[in-house]
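We were asked to recover a plausible sequence for a given structure. The inputs and outputs are reproduced exactly as logged, with field labels preserved.

PROBLEM: sequence recovery
POSITIONS: 286
GIVEN STRUCTURE:
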């Protein structure tokens, strides 16, 4: 009953192109699900995925760049019988139309996406040969092989190209880095996504872990309780979710305790603009 109530309370945001609602905190698999051949780590990843679904999580993001992560995710989701409860996202990370098609087909096989139907989201990883792969993906979407199409990057140096592609139309999602340590997307990219009606997935929500050493040993400010923060991780995530253009943030973990903590950021109040400025000022002072 406790888990059921928690799942119902998760903040959800719409995919602009369809209105489909997604839980606002998802799960990244870079490094943390690259555990093929490591039984103890795989068992931990299985427990984390089970807890994620139990609490109402859905969006899980991977890539062929992430070692065995796609295969591990597919295996674990199948063993738990949860494919139909997940929103599966992965990427294409190669050059050339035929090579891209082969890689995307292999990614879907590894993730066992056929257990749920069409893959939910295929993204062009770091814009590699983006126009070639986007042409393929638009055909695949029209044919019902994928539900949504997106582009990704992890660095502000790519923001101009991300904006150009979004404004040209034909993409449903953009994935980008955004955190209290990496705020450049605030300058125009998030507004551009909103204008283009493109959903935003946030990667590097903890700036690759950079934020935690800055706050280690420091107590949360008393006013953080006003927006329901019980941890620094929730503080960082709620700041991100406080931006209305953000659809979902995808912190990576295979620790079930961190799953609980991260999804806690998708419950309760979110900071308004003034509180977000206060949060940013606090981090800047550390």
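RECOVERED SEQUENCE:
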């Amino acid at each position: 009953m406790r888990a059921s109530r928690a799942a119902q309370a998760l903040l959800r945001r719409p995919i602009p192109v369809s209105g489909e609602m997604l839980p606002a905190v998802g799960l990244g698999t870079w490094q943390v699900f690259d555990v093929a051949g490591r039984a103890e780590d795989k068992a931990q990843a299985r427990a984390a995925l089970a807890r994620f679904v139990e609490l109402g999580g859905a969006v899980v993001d991977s890539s062929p760049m992430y070692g065995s992560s796609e295969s591990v995710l597919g295996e674990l989701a199948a063993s738990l019988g949860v494919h139909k409860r997940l929103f599966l996202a992965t990427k294409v990370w190669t050059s050339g139309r035929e090579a891209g098609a082969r890689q995307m087909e292999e990614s879907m096989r590894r993730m066992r996406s056929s257990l749920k139907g069409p893959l939910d989201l295929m993204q062009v990883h770091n814009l590699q040969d983006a126009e070639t792969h986007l042409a393929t993906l638009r055909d695949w979407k029209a044919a019902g092989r994928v539900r949504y199409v997106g582009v990704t990057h992890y660095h502000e140096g790519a923001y101009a190209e991300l904006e150009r592609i979004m404004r040209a139309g034909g993409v449903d999602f953009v994935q980008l880095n955004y955190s209290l340590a990496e705020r450049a997307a605030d300058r125009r990219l998030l507004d551009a996504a909103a204008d283009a009606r493109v959903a935003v997935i946030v990667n590097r929500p903890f700036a690759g872990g950079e934020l935690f050493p800055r706050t280690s040993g420091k107590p949360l400010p008393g006013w953080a309780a006003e927006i329901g923060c019980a941890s620094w991780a929730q503080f960082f995530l709620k700041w991100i979710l406080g931006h209305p253009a953000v659809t979902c943030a995808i912190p990576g973990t295979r620790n079930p305790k961190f799953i609980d903590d991260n999804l806690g950021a998708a419950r309760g109040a979110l900071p308004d603009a003034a509180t977000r400025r206060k949060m940013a000022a606090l981090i800047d002072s550390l």
